[in-house]
Amino acid sequence: MNVWTPLFLTFRIALCSTVLAALAGLPLARRFSRRANPLAESALLLPLVLPPTTLGWYLLLLLGRSTAFGRFLERHGIPLVFDWKGAVVAAACVSFPLFFATARTALAGVDPRWEDAARLLGASDTKVFVRVTVPSAARGLVSAAILAFARSIGDFGATLLVAGNIPGRTQTLSIAIYDAFSAGEDRRATALVAVTTVLAYASLLAAHRSLPRRWD
Amino acid sequence: MGLISLAVRIRRGTFEGDFRIESEARALAIFGSSGAGKTTLLDAVAGLVRPEEGRIRIGGSVLFDSSAGIDVPARRRRVGYVRQSPDLFPAMTVSENVAFASSCRAGAGGSRDLPAALGIARLNDRRPRELSGGETRRVQIARTLAAGPEILLLDEPFANLDAPARREILPLVAALPRLAGVPAVLVTHDVEEVFAFADEVIVVEGGRVVARGQPLETLSRPGTWPVARISGVENFLAGTLREPAPGGGTLVEWEGTALRAPAIRGEPGDPVTLALFAEDVLVASGPVGGLSARNALPMRVETIEEAGDAVLLTLVDGPRRLRSRITRDAVSALAIVPGSEITAVFKSAALRALAAVK
Protein backbone atom coordinates (compact mmCIF):
# COMPACT_ATOMS: atom_id res chain seq x y z
CA MET A 1 0.00 0.00 0.00
CA ASN A 2 1.96 2.96 -1.26
CA VAL A 3 0.67 6.32 -0.04
CA TRP A 4 3.97 8.14 -0.54
CA THR A 5 3.90 8.21 -4.33
CA PRO A 6 0.57 10.13 -4.56
CA LEU A 7 1.72 12.34 -1.67
CA PHE A 8 4.94 13.49 -3.33
CA LEU A 9 3.22 13.81 -6.68
CA THR A 10 0.47 15.96 -5.20
CA PHE A 11 2.99 18.16 -3.39
CA ARG A 12 5.05 18.63 -6.55
CA ILE A 13 2.01 19.41 -8.68
CA ALA A 14 0.57 21.85 -6.15
CA LEU A 15 3.89 23.66 -5.81
CA CYS A 16 4.37 24.01 -9.56
CA SER A 17 0.80 25.09 -10.13
CA THR A 18 1.07 27.72 -7.39
CA VAL A 19 4.18 29.15 -9.04
CA LEU A 20 2.39 29.14 -12.39
CA ALA A 21 -0.73 30.82 -10.95
CA ALA A 22 1.43 33.44 -9.22
CA LEU A 23 3.46 34.18 -12.36
CA ALA A 24 0.30 34.74 -14.34
CA GLY A 25 -1.65 36.31 -11.50
CA LEU A 26 0.78 38.91 -10.19
CA PRO A 27 1.03 41.09 -13.33
CA LEU A 28 -2.72 40.84 -13.87
CA ALA A 29 -3.44 41.67 -10.24
CA ARG A 30 -1.13 44.68 -10.58
CA ARG A 31 -2.91 45.81 -13.70
CA PHE A 32 -6.38 45.65 -12.16
CA SER A 33 -5.50 46.76 -8.62
CA ARG A 34 -5.64 50.47 -9.50
CA ARG A 35 -8.15 50.46 -12.30
CA ALA A 36 -11.14 48.12 -12.14
CA ASN A 37 -12.32 46.39 -15.30
CA PRO A 38 -15.43 44.28 -14.54
CA LEU A 39 -15.48 42.60 -17.95
CA ALA A 40 -11.92 41.31 -17.86
CA GLU A 41 -11.93 40.57 -14.15
CA SER A 42 -15.11 38.50 -14.33
CA ALA A 43 -13.55 36.44 -17.11
CA LEU A 44 -10.44 35.87 -14.99
CA LEU A 45 -12.54 34.80 -11.99
CA LEU A 46 -14.67 32.42 -14.06
CA PRO A 47 -12.65 29.26 -13.19
CA LEU A 48 -13.62 29.84 -9.55
CA VAL A 49 -17.30 29.50 -10.33
CA LEU A 50 -17.24 26.97 -13.16
CA PRO A 51 -17.39 23.31 -12.08
CA PRO A 52 -13.84 21.92 -12.30
CA THR A 53 -14.98 19.30 -14.81
CA THR A 54 -16.13 22.08 -17.11
CA LEU A 55 -12.73 23.63 -16.87
CA GLY A 56 -11.12 20.22 -17.45
CA TRP A 57 -13.16 19.77 -20.60
CA TYR A 58 -12.06 23.19 -21.92
CA LEU A 59 -8.46 22.29 -21.20
CA LEU A 60 -8.83 18.96 -22.96
CA LEU A 61 -10.23 20.71 -25.99
CA LEU A 62 -7.40 23.23 -25.95
CA LEU A 63 -4.49 20.94 -25.16
CA GLY A 64 -5.60 17.68 -26.76
CA ARG A 65 -4.71 16.32 -30.17
CA SER A 66 -7.78 17.88 -31.74
CA THR A 67 -6.21 21.38 -31.73
CA ALA A 68 -3.17 22.74 -33.48
CA PHE A 69 -1.84 23.92 -30.14
CA GLY A 70 -2.15 20.43 -28.62
CA ARG A 71 -0.44 18.83 -31.63
CA PHE A 72 2.30 21.47 -31.44
CA LEU A 73 2.92 20.62 -27.77
CA GLU A 74 3.04 16.92 -28.51
CA ARG A 75 5.42 17.35 -31.46
CA HIS A 76 7.82 19.27 -29.21
CA GLY A 77 7.82 16.63 -26.52
CA ILE A 78 5.65 18.44 -24.00
CA PRO A 79 2.44 16.44 -24.04
CA LEU A 80 0.14 17.71 -21.33
CA VAL A 81 -2.79 15.36 -21.61
CA PHE A 82 -2.37 12.24 -19.43
CA ASP A 83 0.83 13.69 -18.04
CA TRP A 84 1.72 15.23 -14.63
CA LYS A 85 2.48 18.52 -16.40
CA GLY A 86 -1.13 18.51 -17.55
CA ALA A 87 -2.17 18.11 -13.93
CA VAL A 88 -0.06 21.19 -13.10
CA VAL A 89 -1.83 23.19 -15.82
CA ALA A 90 -5.23 22.00 -14.61
CA ALA A 91 -4.47 22.81 -10.96
CA ALA A 92 -3.01 26.19 -11.93
CA CYS A 93 -6.21 27.05 -13.82
CA VAL A 94 -8.52 26.22 -10.93
CA SER A 95 -6.32 27.99 -8.36
CA PHE A 96 -5.51 31.04 -10.49
CA PRO A 97 -8.66 33.03 -9.55
CA LEU A 98 -7.95 32.63 -5.85
CA PHE A 99 -4.43 33.96 -6.28
CA PHE A 100 -5.53 36.74 -8.60
CA ALA A 101 -8.42 38.00 -6.46
CA THR A 102 -6.45 37.90 -3.20
CA ALA A 103 -3.36 39.50 -4.72
CA ARG A 104 -5.40 42.24 -6.38
CA THR A 105 -6.97 43.16 -3.04
CA ALA A 106 -3.56 43.12 -1.36
CA LEU A 107 -2.01 45.37 -4.02
CA ALA A 108 -4.98 47.72 -4.00
CA GLY A 109 -4.44 48.13 -0.25
CA VAL A 110 -0.93 49.51 -0.74
CA ASP A 111 -0.97 53.22 0.05
CA PRO A 112 -0.29 55.13 -3.21
CA ARG A 113 1.77 57.57 -1.13
CA TRP A 114 4.56 55.00 -0.93
CA GLU A 115 4.56 54.44 -4.68
CA ASP A 116 4.50 58.19 -5.29
CA ALA A 117 7.39 58.60 -2.87
CA ALA A 118 9.47 56.03 -4.75
CA ARG A 119 8.66 57.65 -8.08
CA LEU A 120 9.63 61.08 -6.73
CA LEU A 121 12.99 59.62 -5.70
CA GLY A 122 13.49 58.58 -9.32
CA ALA A 123 12.61 54.88 -9.22
CA SER A 124 11.43 53.21 -12.43
CA ASP A 125 7.97 51.62 -12.54
CA THR A 126 9.46 48.14 -12.24
CA LYS A 127 11.58 49.17 -9.27
CA VAL A 128 8.59 50.78 -7.60
CA PHE A 129 6.61 47.56 -8.01
CA VAL A 130 9.34 45.13 -6.98
CA ARG A 131 10.88 47.10 -4.12
CA VAL A 132 7.94 49.06 -2.72
CA THR A 133 4.57 47.68 -3.79
CA VAL A 134 5.25 43.96 -3.44
CA PRO A 135 6.99 44.14 -0.02
CA SER A 136 4.22 46.40 1.27
CA ALA A 137 1.64 43.85 0.14
CA ALA A 138 3.74 40.81 1.10
CA ARG A 139 1.29 39.52 3.69
CA GLY A 140 -1.58 39.51 1.27
CA LEU A 141 0.52 38.01 -1.51
CA VAL A 142 1.66 35.12 0.69
CA SER A 143 -1.97 34.53 1.65
CA ALA A 144 -2.84 34.48 -2.05
CA ALA A 145 -0.19 31.81 -2.65
CA ILE A 146 -1.44 29.73 0.30
CA LEU A 147 -4.98 29.77 -1.04
CA ALA A 148 -3.78 28.79 -4.50
CA PHE A 149 -1.66 25.99 -3.08
CA ALA A 150 -4.54 24.68 -0.97
CA ARG A 151 -6.89 24.72 -3.94
CA SER A 152 -4.31 22.86 -6.03
CA ILE A 153 -3.94 20.10 -3.45
CA GLY A 154 -7.66 19.61 -3.37
CA ASP A 155 -8.42 19.61 -7.09
CA PHE A 156 -10.13 16.54 -8.46
CA GLY A 157 -12.32 17.20 -11.47
CA ALA A 158 -10.09 19.25 -13.75
CA THR A 159 -7.01 17.14 -12.96
CA LEU A 160 -8.85 13.89 -13.61
CA LEU A 161 -10.14 15.01 -16.99
CA VAL A 162 -6.83 16.42 -18.22
CA ALA A 163 -4.29 14.09 -16.63
CA GLY A 164 -6.33 10.99 -16.01
CA ASN A 165 -5.79 8.43 -13.28
CA ILE A 166 -2.40 6.86 -13.87
CA PRO A 167 -0.91 5.53 -10.63
CA GLY A 168 2.58 6.91 -10.08
CA ARG A 169 2.26 9.45 -12.87
CA THR A 170 -0.92 11.46 -12.56
CA GLN A 171 -2.73 9.91 -9.65
CA THR A 172 -2.84 12.69 -7.05
CA LEU A 173 -4.10 12.18 -3.49
CA SER A 174 -7.68 13.18 -4.14
CA ILE A 175 -7.85 10.93 -7.21
CA ALA A 176 -6.16 8.07 -5.34
CA ILE A 177 -8.73 8.36 -2.54
CA TYR A 178 -11.58 8.12 -5.01
CA ASP A 179 -9.81 5.22 -6.72
CA ALA A 180 -9.37 3.32 -3.46
CA PHE A 181 -12.95 3.99 -2.44
CA SER A 182 -14.30 2.75 -5.79
CA ALA A 183 -12.20 -0.39 -5.50
CA GLY A 184 -13.50 -1.02 -1.99
CA GLU A 185 -10.00 -0.67 -0.44
CA ASP A 186 -11.18 1.12 2.68
CA ARG A 187 -7.88 0.79 4.55
CA ARG A 188 -5.98 2.36 1.67
CA ALA A 189 -8.57 5.17 1.39
CA THR A 190 -8.30 5.88 5.11
CA ALA A 191 -4.49 6.00 4.97
CA LEU A 192 -4.61 8.39 2.01
CA VAL A 193 -7.12 10.60 3.75
CA ALA A 194 -4.88 10.76 6.81
CA VAL A 195 -1.82 11.63 4.71
CA THR A 196 -3.77 14.33 2.87
CA THR A 197 -4.88 15.86 6.14
CA VAL A 198 -1.30 15.93 7.44
CA LEU A 199 -0.05 17.53 4.21
CA ALA A 200 -2.76 20.18 4.31
CA TYR A 201 -2.15 20.99 7.95
CA ALA A 202 1.65 21.07 7.60
CA SER A 203 1.41 23.37 4.57
CA LEU A 204 -0.86 25.79 6.40
CA LEU A 205 1.42 25.80 9.41
CA ALA A 206 4.50 26.43 7.28
CA ALA A 207 2.76 29.19 5.40
CA HIS A 208 1.59 30.78 8.60
CA ARG A 209 5.13 30.81 9.94
CA SER A 210 6.49 32.37 6.80
CA LEU A 211 3.84 35.10 6.79
CA PRO A 212 5.64 38.46 6.85
CA ARG A 213 4.92 40.93 9.61
CA ARG A 214 2.31 43.60 9.26
CA TRP A 215 4.08 46.94 8.79
CA ASP A 216 1.48 49.61 9.14
CA MET B 1 17.44 83.40 -15.56
CA GLY B 2 15.72 82.74 -12.26
CA LEU B 3 16.10 79.67 -10.09
CA ILE B 4 12.38 79.06 -10.13
CA SER B 5 10.22 80.32 -12.91
CA LEU B 6 6.67 79.15 -13.30
CA ALA B 7 3.35 80.31 -14.65
CA VAL B 8 0.69 77.64 -14.42
CA ARG B 9 -3.04 77.25 -14.32
CA ILE B 10 -4.02 74.26 -12.19
CA ARG B 11 -7.38 72.67 -11.62
CA ARG B 12 -7.87 69.97 -9.00
CA GLY B 13 -11.38 69.05 -7.95
CA THR B 14 -13.09 72.35 -7.20
CA PHE B 15 -9.79 74.15 -6.73
CA GLU B 16 -8.52 76.49 -9.41
CA GLY B 17 -5.18 78.21 -9.18
CA ASP B 18 -3.25 80.59 -11.38
CA PHE B 19 0.28 80.93 -10.08
CA ARG B 20 3.08 83.10 -11.42
CA ILE B 21 6.37 82.88 -9.57
CA GLU B 22 9.84 84.11 -10.47
CA SER B 23 12.41 83.77 -7.75
CA GLU B 24 16.15 83.76 -7.26
CA ALA B 25 15.93 82.89 -3.56
CA ARG B 26 17.83 79.85 -2.30
CA ALA B 27 15.37 79.70 0.58
CA LEU B 28 11.89 80.59 -0.58
CA ALA B 29 8.80 80.40 1.63
CA ILE B 30 5.32 80.05 0.20
CA PHE B 31 2.99 81.42 2.80
CA GLY B 32 -0.78 81.06 2.83
CA SER B 33 -3.74 79.67 4.70
CA SER B 34 -4.97 76.13 4.11
CA GLY B 35 -6.91 75.84 0.89
CA ALA B 36 -4.81 78.53 -0.76
CA GLY B 37 -3.34 75.92 -3.10
CA LYS B 38 0.16 75.65 -1.66
CA THR B 39 0.31 71.85 -1.71
CA THR B 40 -1.28 71.66 -5.15
CA LEU B 41 1.41 74.02 -6.41
CA LEU B 42 4.19 71.79 -5.00
CA ASP B 43 2.46 68.70 -6.46
CA ALA B 44 2.56 70.37 -9.86
CA VAL B 45 6.26 71.22 -9.56
CA ALA B 46 7.01 67.62 -8.49
CA GLY B 47 4.95 66.18 -11.34
CA LEU B 48 2.16 64.58 -9.32
CA VAL B 49 -0.45 66.97 -10.72
CA ARG B 50 -0.63 68.02 -14.34
CA PRO B 51 -1.39 71.74 -14.79
CA GLU B 52 -4.06 72.72 -17.28
CA GLU B 53 -1.54 74.93 -19.01
CA GLY B 54 1.61 76.93 -18.47
CA ARG B 55 5.26 76.20 -17.89
CA ILE B 56 7.51 75.26 -15.00
CA ARG B 57 11.26 75.75 -15.05
CA ILE B 58 13.65 74.91 -12.22
CA GLY B 59 17.23 76.07 -12.71
CA GLY B 60 18.10 75.14 -16.27
CA SER B 61 15.49 72.44 -16.80
CA VAL B 62 12.04 72.93 -18.24
CA LEU B 63 9.83 70.43 -16.40
CA PHE B 64 6.52 71.35 -17.95
CA ASP B 65 5.50 73.41 -20.93
CA SER B 66 2.02 72.89 -22.29
CA SER B 67 2.66 74.87 -25.48
CA ALA B 68 5.79 72.84 -26.27
CA GLY B 69 4.16 69.57 -25.19
CA ILE B 70 6.75 68.99 -22.45
CA ASP B 71 5.69 67.09 -19.33
CA VAL B 72 8.70 65.45 -17.68
CA PRO B 73 7.51 62.47 -15.58
CA ALA B 74 7.90 62.82 -11.82
CA ARG B 75 10.70 60.27 -11.62
CA ARG B 76 12.89 62.21 -14.05
CA ARG B 77 12.41 65.63 -12.46
CA ARG B 78 15.10 65.61 -9.75
CA VAL B 79 12.71 67.47 -7.51
CA GLY B 80 13.11 66.44 -3.87
CA TYR B 81 9.68 66.57 -2.29
CA VAL B 82 9.14 66.08 1.43
CA ARG B 83 5.41 65.65 1.66
CA GLN B 84 3.27 66.57 4.59
CA SER B 85 2.06 63.06 5.37
CA PRO B 86 4.59 60.43 6.43
CA ASP B 87 5.48 58.31 3.40
CA LEU B 88 8.47 56.21 4.46
CA PHE B 89 8.45 52.69 3.02
CA PRO B 90 6.94 50.62 5.83
CA ALA B 91 8.73 47.36 5.04
CA MET B 92 12.19 48.96 5.05
CA THR B 93 14.34 50.16 7.92
CA VAL B 94 15.47 53.77 8.13
CA SER B 95 18.81 53.05 6.49
CA GLU B 96 17.13 50.96 3.78
CA ASN B 97 14.76 53.83 3.06
CA VAL B 98 17.72 56.16 2.58
CA ALA B 99 19.69 53.57 0.59
CA PHE B 100 16.72 53.06 -1.72
CA ALA B 101 16.80 56.76 -2.54
CA SER B 102 20.52 56.81 -3.30
CA SER B 103 20.14 53.79 -5.59
CA CYS B 104 17.53 55.40 -7.84
CA ARG B 105 19.59 57.87 -9.85
CA ALA B 106 23.12 57.96 -11.10
CA GLY B 107 25.13 60.49 -9.14
CA ALA B 108 22.76 60.38 -6.20
CA GLY B 109 23.87 59.49 -2.72
CA GLY B 110 23.87 62.78 -0.93
CA SER B 111 26.35 63.84 1.66
CA ARG B 112 27.85 61.20 3.95
CA ASP B 113 27.46 63.52 6.92
CA LEU B 114 23.82 64.21 6.31
CA PRO B 115 22.35 61.45 8.51
CA ALA B 116 24.54 62.69 11.35
CA ALA B 117 23.58 66.30 10.73
CA LEU B 118 19.92 65.31 10.73
CA GLY B 119 20.45 63.27 13.88
CA ILE B 120 19.12 60.04 12.44
CA ALA B 121 22.27 57.91 12.41
CA ARG B 122 21.17 56.16 15.58
CA LEU B 123 17.78 55.29 14.02
CA ASN B 124 19.27 53.22 11.20
CA ASP B 125 17.75 49.86 12.13
CA ARG B 126 14.32 51.11 13.12
CA ARG B 127 11.16 50.62 11.08
CA PRO B 128 9.08 53.68 10.15
CA ARG B 129 6.30 52.74 12.53
CA GLU B 130 8.75 52.81 15.44
CA LEU B 131 9.62 56.47 14.84
CA SER B 132 8.19 59.57 16.46
CA GLY B 133 6.71 62.33 14.31
CA GLY B 134 9.88 64.41 14.43
CA GLU B 135 12.11 61.44 13.63
CA THR B 136 9.88 60.47 10.70
CA ARG B 137 10.21 63.97 9.28
CA ARG B 138 13.99 63.94 9.60
CA VAL B 139 14.25 60.56 7.88
CA GLN B 140 11.92 61.81 5.12
CA ILE B 141 14.27 64.76 4.60
CA ALA B 142 17.38 62.54 4.61
CA ARG B 143 15.80 60.13 2.14
CA THR B 144 14.76 62.97 -0.16
CA LEU B 145 18.24 64.48 -0.15
CA ALA B 146 19.87 61.08 -0.75
CA ALA B 147 18.22 60.96 -4.18
CA GLY B 148 20.34 63.95 -5.23
CA PRO B 149 17.63 66.51 -5.99
CA GLU B 150 18.27 69.84 -7.70
CA ILE B 151 15.67 71.54 -5.55
CA LEU B 152 14.01 70.65 -2.27
CA LEU B 153 10.28 71.16 -1.65
CA LEU B 154 9.09 71.03 1.96
CA ASP B 155 5.35 70.88 2.52
CA GLU B 156 4.54 72.06 6.05
CA PRO B 157 7.34 69.99 7.62
CA PHE B 158 6.12 70.94 11.08
CA ALA B 159 2.51 69.93 10.64
CA ASN B 160 1.31 67.36 13.17
CA LEU B 161 4.43 67.78 15.32
CA ASP B 162 4.18 68.64 18.99
CA ALA B 163 5.85 71.80 20.25
CA PRO B 164 9.12 70.19 21.46
CA ALA B 165 9.61 68.30 18.19
CA ARG B 166 8.89 71.45 16.26
CA ARG B 167 11.41 73.48 18.24
CA GLU B 168 13.96 70.76 17.57
CA ILE B 169 13.43 70.62 13.81
CA LEU B 170 12.90 74.29 13.01
CA PRO B 171 16.62 75.22 13.11
CA LEU B 172 17.42 72.08 11.16
CA VAL B 173 15.01 72.91 8.37
CA ALA B 174 16.21 76.50 8.41
CA ALA B 175 19.76 75.25 7.81
CA LEU B 176 18.79 72.84 5.02
CA PRO B 177 19.51 74.97 1.94
CA ARG B 178 23.05 75.53 3.23
CA LEU B 179 23.50 72.01 4.64
CA ALA B 180 22.28 70.23 1.52
CA GLY B 181 23.63 72.72 -0.95
CA VAL B 182 20.37 72.90 -2.88
CA PRO B 183 17.77 75.64 -3.06
CA ALA B 184 14.68 74.90 -1.02
CA VAL B 185 11.04 75.92 -1.03
CA LEU B 186 9.09 75.80 2.23
CA VAL B 187 5.30 75.82 2.31
CA THR B 188 3.84 77.06 5.57
CA HIS B 189 1.13 79.08 7.25
CA ASP B 190 3.32 80.02 10.20
CA VAL B 191 5.05 83.39 10.32
CA GLU B 192 7.77 82.17 12.65
CA GLU B 193 8.78 79.48 10.17
CA VAL B 194 8.94 82.00 7.35
CA PHE B 195 11.32 84.18 9.31
CA ALA B 196 13.47 81.31 10.49
CA PHE B 197 13.83 79.90 6.98
CA ALA B 198 13.31 82.24 4.10
CA ASP B 199 15.22 84.88 2.16
CA GLU B 200 12.07 85.60 0.24
CA VAL B 201 8.39 84.97 0.85
CA ILE B 202 5.55 84.54 -1.60
CA VAL B 203 2.08 84.96 -0.18
CA VAL B 204 -0.67 82.94 -1.85
CA GLU B 205 -4.36 83.30 -1.34
CA GLY B 206 -7.19 81.59 -3.22
CA GLY B 207 -4.88 80.12 -5.85
CA ARG B 208 -3.04 83.36 -6.58
CA VAL B 209 0.16 85.08 -5.55
CA VAL B 210 -0.89 88.20 -3.66
CA ALA B 211 2.44 89.47 -2.36
CA ARG B 212 6.12 88.68 -2.52
CA GLY B 213 9.36 90.07 -1.16
CA GLN B 214 11.74 90.08 1.74
CA PRO B 215 9.95 88.41 4.72
CA LEU B 216 9.98 91.24 7.26
CA GLU B 217 8.94 93.87 4.77
CA THR B 218 6.28 91.69 3.23
CA LEU B 219 4.72 90.17 6.33
CA SER B 220 4.78 93.13 8.69
CA ARG B 221 3.46 95.66 6.22
CA PRO B 222 0.17 96.44 7.90
CA GLY B 223 -3.11 96.58 6.08
CA THR B 224 -1.86 96.04 2.56
CA TRP B 225 -3.02 92.44 2.45
CA PRO B 226 -4.51 89.92 4.84
CA VAL B 227 -1.40 88.55 6.53
CA ALA B 228 -3.05 88.73 9.94
CA ARG B 229 -5.95 86.62 8.74
CA ILE B 230 -3.57 83.93 7.48
CA SER B 231 -1.08 83.95 10.33
CA GLY B 232 -3.24 85.25 13.17
CA VAL B 233 -0.44 87.66 14.08
CA GLU B 234 -1.53 91.31 14.17
CA ASN B 235 1.47 92.82 15.90
CA PHE B 236 4.99 92.85 14.53
CA LEU B 237 7.31 94.84 16.78
CA ALA B 238 10.63 95.74 15.16
CA GLY B 239 13.25 96.50 17.77
CA THR B 240 16.83 95.89 18.79
CA LEU B 241 18.27 93.46 21.32
CA ARG B 242 19.56 94.84 24.59
CA GLU B 243 21.31 93.03 27.37
CA PRO B 244 19.86 89.86 28.94
CA ALA B 245 17.21 90.81 31.46
CA PRO B 246 18.04 90.30 35.13
CA GLY B 247 16.31 87.14 36.24
CA GLY B 248 16.07 85.57 32.76
CA GLY B 249 14.83 86.53 29.30
CA THR B 250 16.02 89.34 27.10
CA LEU B 251 15.29 93.05 27.00
CA VAL B 252 14.27 94.43 23.62
CA GLU B 253 14.32 98.11 22.81
CA TRP B 254 11.11 98.97 20.93
CA GLU B 255 10.32 102.53 19.88
CA GLY B 256 11.84 104.10 22.98
CA THR B 257 10.65 101.60 25.53
CA ALA B 258 12.11 98.35 26.87
CA LEU B 259 10.10 95.16 26.47
CA ARG B 260 10.79 91.97 28.31
CA ALA B 261 10.95 88.98 25.95
CA PRO B 262 11.96 85.33 26.33
CA ALA B 263 15.63 84.51 25.88
CA ILE B 264 16.75 85.43 22.33
CA ARG B 265 20.10 84.47 20.88
CA GLY B 266 22.12 87.36 19.53
CA GLU B 267 24.32 90.30 20.41
CA PRO B 268 23.09 93.56 21.93
CA GLY B 269 22.30 95.88 19.05
CA ASP B 270 21.08 93.11 16.72
CA PRO B 271 17.76 93.89 15.06
CA VAL B 272 14.88 91.63 16.07
CA THR B 273 11.21 91.44 15.20
CA LEU B 274 8.72 90.23 17.77
CA ALA B 275 5.36 88.73 16.86
CA LEU B 276 2.48 89.27 19.25
CA PHE B 277 -1.07 87.97 18.88
CA ALA B 278 -3.76 90.61 19.45
CA GLU B 279 -5.44 88.06 21.76
CA ASP B 280 -2.41 88.17 24.03
CA VAL B 281 -2.66 91.91 24.67
CA LEU B 282 -4.82 92.63 27.74
CA VAL B 283 -6.28 96.02 28.45
CA ALA B 284 -6.61 97.55 31.92
CA SER B 285 -8.59 100.72 32.52
CA GLY B 286 -5.99 102.24 34.84
CA PRO B 287 -2.50 101.69 36.20
CA VAL B 288 -1.93 98.08 37.17
CA GLY B 289 0.06 96.35 39.86
CA GLY B 290 0.45 92.90 41.28
CA LEU B 291 0.55 91.22 37.86
CA SER B 292 2.84 88.44 36.71
CA ALA B 293 2.86 89.85 33.18
CA ARG B 294 6.15 91.72 32.67
CA ASN B 295 5.08 94.23 30.07
CA ALA B 296 2.64 97.03 30.90
CA LEU B 297 2.53 100.10 28.66
CA PRO B 298 0.31 103.12 29.17
CA MET B 299 -1.46 103.76 25.83
CA ARG B 300 -4.45 105.47 24.30
CA VAL B 301 -7.28 103.79 22.40
CA GLU B 302 -7.33 105.12 18.86
CA THR B 303 -9.98 103.03 17.12
CA ILE B 304 -12.46 100.27 18.01
CA GLU B 305 -13.42 97.84 15.22
CA GLU B 306 -15.88 95.01 15.26
CA ALA B 307 -14.03 91.78 14.42
CA GLY B 308 -16.37 88.80 14.40
CA ASP B 309 -17.66 88.14 17.91
CA ALA B 310 -14.85 90.19 19.44
CA VAL B 311 -13.51 93.71 19.14
CA LEU B 312 -10.16 94.83 17.77
CA LEU B 313 -8.63 97.87 19.45
CA THR B 314 -5.84 99.94 17.98
CA LEU B 315 -3.71 101.32 20.78
CA VAL B 316 -1.18 104.13 20.31
CA ASP B 317 1.44 105.90 22.34
CA GLY B 318 3.81 108.11 20.39
CA PRO B 319 5.44 105.91 17.73
CA ARG B 320 4.17 102.71 19.37
CA ARG B 321 1.10 100.97 17.97
CA LEU B 322 -0.49 97.74 19.20
CA ARG B 323 -3.60 95.80 18.29
CA SER B 324 -5.58 94.10 21.03
CA ARG B 325 -8.51 91.73 20.65
CA ILE B 326 -10.94 91.70 23.56
CA THR B 327 -14.61 90.81 24.01
CA ARG B 328 -17.42 93.29 23.45
CA ASP B 329 -18.41 92.62 27.03
CA ALA B 330 -14.99 93.86 28.25
CA VAL B 331 -15.32 97.03 26.18
CA SER B 332 -18.55 98.00 27.90
CA ALA B 333 -17.41 96.87 31.35
CA LEU B 334 -14.31 99.07 31.16
CA ALA B 335 -16.24 101.84 29.35
CA ILE B 336 -13.63 101.94 26.60
CA VAL B 337 -14.20 104.58 23.93
CA PRO B 338 -11.80 106.08 21.39
CA GLY B 339 -9.49 108.34 23.35
CA SER B 340 -9.58 106.25 26.57
CA GLU B 341 -6.29 106.13 28.47
CA ILE B 342 -5.55 102.47 29.25
CA THR B 343 -2.67 100.16 30.07
CA ALA B 344 -1.73 97.44 27.57
CA VAL B 345 -0.47 94.33 29.33
CA PHE B 346 1.21 91.23 27.89
CA LYS B 347 3.41 88.43 29.18
CA SER B 348 6.98 88.22 28.00
CA ALA B 349 6.28 84.65 26.78
CA ALA B 350 3.66 86.04 24.39
CA LEU B 351 6.45 87.71 22.40
CA ARG B 352 7.85 85.38 19.74
CA ALA B 353 11.16 86.41 18.26
CA LEU B 354 11.10 86.21 14.48
CA ALA B 355 14.74 85.90 13.68
CA ALA B 356 16.92 83.97 11.37
CA VAL B 357 17.85 80.83 13.27
CA LYS B 358 20.60 80.18 10.71
3D architecture notes:
The complex is a heterodimer of chains A (216) and B (358). Chain A has 216 residues and is mostly helical. Chain A has a single domain, classed as MetI-like (MetI-like fold), CATH 1.10.3720. Chain A is built from eleven helices and no strands. Chain A has helices at 4-34, 38-49, 52-63, 68-75, 84-108, 112-120, 125-136, 138-154, 157-163, 173-182, 186-210. In chain A, helix 5 (84-108) packs antiparallel against helix 9 (157-163) and helix 8 runs antiparallel to helix 11. Chain A is globular. Chain A starts with a helix and ends in a 6-residue tail after the last helix. The mean pLDDT of chain A is 91. Chain B has nine helices and 21 strands. The longest helix of chain B is centred in the middle third of the chain and has 18 residues, at 163-180. In chain B, the strands form four sheets. Chain B has a six-stranded mixed beta sheet, with helices on both faces. Chain B has a five-stranded antiparallel beta sheet with strand order 2-1-4-5-6, covered by helices on one side. Chain B folds into two domains: 4-226, Rossmann fold (3-Layer(aba) Sandwich), CATH 3.40.50; 235-354, OB fold (Dihydrolipoamide Acetyltransferase, E2P) (Beta Barrel), CATH 2.40.50.100. By secondary structure, chain B is an alpha+beta fold. The mean pLDDT of chain B is 88. Chain B is 22% helix and 36% strand. In chain B, helix 2 (94-102) runs parallel beside helix 4 and helix 4 packs parallel to helix 5 (163-180). The chains are: A mainly alpha (216), B alpha+beta (358).
